């Protein structure tokens, strides 16, 4: 069983030996390995049960280090890197040969991010190589926002989880690429697109392709709990049922056991809601309920990214009850 602790040196020792280690970030926990060691990277894919066509994000601690493994940084990307890093934003940049093809699933771009977490930044600063790290969940399941989430699902397969407390953002990073005339967001996430547009002008948002996805985080079925999840438009209530779990934005629903309900933010704060989203979905998934109803959030700021995750996690196809009304 994985040891959970705050020992950066121990984490480093395991990484040096080619092991995979759980690491905290401000978005979600990652499953990290030496990005320049193909054997270690292969272990990430095995532990996650992740298909090899789904590329990984490479994490480091400075733009200077990024320049060692990408061949160019377009102007818009540099502005974002200098303003938003460390932070919940991933840039797709042309890769140098140094980065193994396994990391990028053979793509010519590499996804890069400087995460904003003191423990992980200290670890990255101490390493002569970057860390490849997907979210530390089995492929297709909800991302982990605590060390315990990682231990619950992958603890028997990894030696160590660096515990940095609950993730403060709680949603995966926003992913943006620069190969089109207008920068393109491929995954909504912890950084609000409006904030990006204020820095670099208009962006395209293309997160909905279901076939041959640019980013498999865009696959329509992803981030899902094991229990069926159904969506509710804001203001609508779930149909009555004994074994119903609910996830609401500001207040719980009448007629359902309080024990089966979770409220994301009683004050209506989207950042607080994002921080709680995945932990509450996990908690509901472990209850004795047959179905989970989740209320969609206001479609602004982080609400858009949260609705994206809820739609992908839902059955059958992301449509909300009362969508046609
Ligand atoms: O917040 C995050 O991004 C977290 C933390 C640990 O940093 N990581 C994360 O990784 O969410 P992962 O592997 O769960 O999601 C990475 C997404 C995948 O959907 C993958 O397809 C996409 O990034 N991706 C990686 N490299 C890519 C590339 N070169 N082009 C397009 N998409 C890429
Ligand atoms: Mg993931």
From TrEMBL:
Cell compartments where the protein resides: Cytoplasm
Keywords: ATP-binding, Cytoplasm, Nucleotide-binding, Nucleotidyltransferase, Transferase, tRNA processing
Chief localization: cytoplasm
Top-level taxon of origin: Bacteria
Family as reported in the entry's similarity comment: Belongs to the SUA5 family.
EC class (word): transferase
Keyword tRNA processing listed: yes
Classification via PANTHER family: SUA5, THREONYLCARBAMOYL-AMP SYNTHASE
Catalytic activity: L-threonine + hydrogencarbonate + ATP = L-threonylcarbamoyladenylate + diphosphate + H2O
EC number in record: 2.7.7.87
Record protein name field: Threonylcarbamoyl-AMP synthase
Span of domain YrdC-like: 5-191
Stated role: Required for the formation of a threonylcarbamoyl group on adenosine at position 37 (t(6)A37) in tRNAs that read codons beginning with adenine.
Organism: Spirosoma utsteinense
């Amino acid at each position: 069983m994985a040891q959970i602790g705050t020992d950066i040196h121990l984490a480093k020792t395991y990484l040096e030996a080619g092991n995979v280690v759980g690491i905290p970030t401000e978005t979600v926990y990652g499953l990290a390995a030496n990005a320049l060691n193909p054997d270690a990277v292969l272990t990430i894919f095995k532990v996650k049960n992740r298909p090899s066509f789904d590329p990984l994000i490479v994490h480091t601690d400075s733009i200077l280090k990024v320049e060692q493994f990408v061949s160019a940084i377009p102007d818009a990307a540099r502005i974002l890197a200098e303003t938003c890093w460390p932070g919940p934003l991933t840039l797709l940049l042309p890769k140098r040969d140094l980065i193994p093809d396994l990391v990028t699933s053979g793509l010519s771009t590499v996804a890069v991010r400087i995460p904003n977490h003191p423990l992980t930044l200290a670890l990255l600063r101490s390493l002569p190589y970057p860390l490849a790290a997907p979210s530390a969940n089995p492929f297709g399941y909800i991302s982990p926002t605590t060390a315990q989430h990682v231990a619950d699902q992958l603890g028997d397969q990894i030696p160590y989880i660096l515990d940095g407390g609950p993730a403060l953002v709680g949603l995966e990073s926003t992913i943006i690429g620069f190969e089109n005339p207008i920068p393109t967001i491929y995954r909504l996430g912890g950084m609000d697109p409006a904030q990006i547009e204020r820095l670099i002008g208009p962006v395209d948002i293309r997160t909905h392709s279901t076939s041959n996805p640019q980013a498999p985080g865009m696959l329509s079925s992803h981030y899902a709990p094991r229990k069926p999840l159904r969506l509710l438009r804001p203001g609508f209530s779930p149909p009555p049922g004994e074994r119903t779990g609910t996830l609401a934005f500001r207040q719980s629903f009448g007629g359902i056991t309080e024990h089966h309900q979770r409220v994301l933010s009683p004050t209506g704060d989207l950042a607080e809601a994002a921080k709680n989203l995945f932990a509450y979905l996990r908690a509901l998934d472990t209850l004795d309920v047959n179905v989970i109803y989740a209320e969609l959030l206001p479609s602004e700021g982080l609400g858009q990214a949260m609705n994206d995750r809820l739609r992908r996690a839902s059955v059958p196809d992301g449509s909300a009850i009362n969508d046609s009304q």
